[in-house]
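Q: Start with the shorter request: fold the first protein.
A: Done. Sequence, then structure:
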Amino acid sequence: MADKFDVIVIGAGPGGYVAAIRAAQMGLKTACVEKWVNKEGKTVHGGTCLNVGCIPSKALLETSHKFVEARDHFAEVGIEVDEPKANIAKMLEFKNSVINKNVGGISALFKANGVTSLEGKGKVTSSTEVEVTDHDGNATTYTADNIVIAAGSVPVEIPPTPLTDDLIVTSTGALEFTEVPKRLGVIGAGVIGLELGSVWKRLGAEVTVLEAMDSFLPMVDSAIAKETQKLLKKQGLDIKLGARVTGSEVKDSEVVVKYTDADGEQEMTFDKLIVCVGRRPYTQGVIADGVGVELDERGFIFVDDQCRTNVPNVYAIGDCVRGPMLAHKASEEGVMVADIIAGHKAEMNYDAIPSVIYTSPEVAWVGMTEQDAKAKGIEVKTGSFPFSANGRALANNAPEGMAKIIADAETDRILGMHIVSQHAGELIAQGVIAMEFGSSAEDLALTCYAHPSTSEAIHEAALAVEGHAIHMANRKKR
């Protein structure tokens, strides 16, 4: 029998590595198991997020955005440059450097906090044992008083579009294109599809997004979704709603996609096809038969509000449990679980988890949408404000978008905040903090905001809840 630990965490993604570091900070003897191996054959931490997800996609989103700014918008503000050229190889090199810095940072944090890194595939074999099979196939069993499963998720594959090397790919492959495809198809108009479609559209691809649902971004407030769809269409993204893919065929290094829509059978040909139809929990093979941890029919692990499974001292967090598949949600669950194991009282506010789509402009939201409130029979009042009336947004040459606040009609408590704008992912933190502290719309309306700042749009939206916005004509008089 190998070493005994207070805590063993399976998975070193945003949930797992944070849980391991927090547990170690609490004085617990902690190990973290990771099976991810990079192209050089070295075990790396960070999971999907740092290696093939959040971080690399944001690197390409930022570089492609800068390219479009230089190509299309510098002249508008008086900056004259020769026509810029996109160096895809250099962009990928930058993306990889960002990955390496982040991954290396986690390894350094493990060392600094005394977390033991176990390389290989982890499997829970009992409520106190984890079997780790290294890259050579050798298995070692470790014991622990507590086990945290943070195995993450993987892209969903669909039968009509079987993956074909470098032609039909998931989001992972879409981050590795070495040249801009002339015709790019994207299946799925969700967060990942819109972000990756935006990257390659900015760099010159003709992008068509095929979405099976009839509505665009149904999880987003309808007013924000409508504005976002309009802005993305203006940028040249061809988003086809109600388009259900039924098959595909690779012909002469091209992909022929068949789909049905309101007009019947359709067909389109692409040079590359990205399949972005969601992710599924990576739990197969992580829990041995007989351990007793309950899973649902989709492979998600059943947990309570504090991420306890039905087996004592076994916890699960992140993408392999209920709730949104978001890195920051996984991280906060990791902190909560580590604190609970250490004997502290801890909980997480699942009503105040922000979501962001890093298109340009960005889309961000927290809490209820107006349609959510209506479905629950909650009477609300709302306030909206356009960034076209915000001085800093105009000075930034980024007047697109709007901010919207949803408040309880009776108590004035903020139930949701929704933004489409430049840097919406940063601005949304105001809504998260407000909801965390149970703030009212009046609280934000009475707050002094810096001028000029794009945050003033949040202030004006809060004022608009009672019809008191200063910088636009008010519909309501109080």
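Q: Next, the second protein, separately.
A: Sequence, then structure:
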Amino acid sequence: MRIPTAAITAGSLIGGWQLARRTGNRPLGGLVLAAGGALAGRDWARRTSPVVTGALVTTYLGAFALSHPLARRIGAWPAVLAVSAVTAAAAYAAADRRSVTQSMR
């Protein structure tokens, strides 16, 4: 069974942040982020066009970058949850929804 990339991206953003926060080891959190991005990116590359894949990778990396200044304004948890939700929604809309629709046929 394939895990939806929406779950992978949201999980790796939240999980990577929590791991870095709880252990104090930011590179370890970055490793989770990189692994999630690589796993989702590989799936996007197989199932979507290069343009869609590039847009989703940019969204994922941009969410990570945006979470830092956003956390200063609204707090860490709300920032991470917000960027994770946006990233998951983009992944679902651009990649996951198509495979759900196709598998129902």
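Q: Describe the second briefly.
A: Residues 97 and 103 are 10 Å apart (CA to CA). The radius of gyration is 14 Å.
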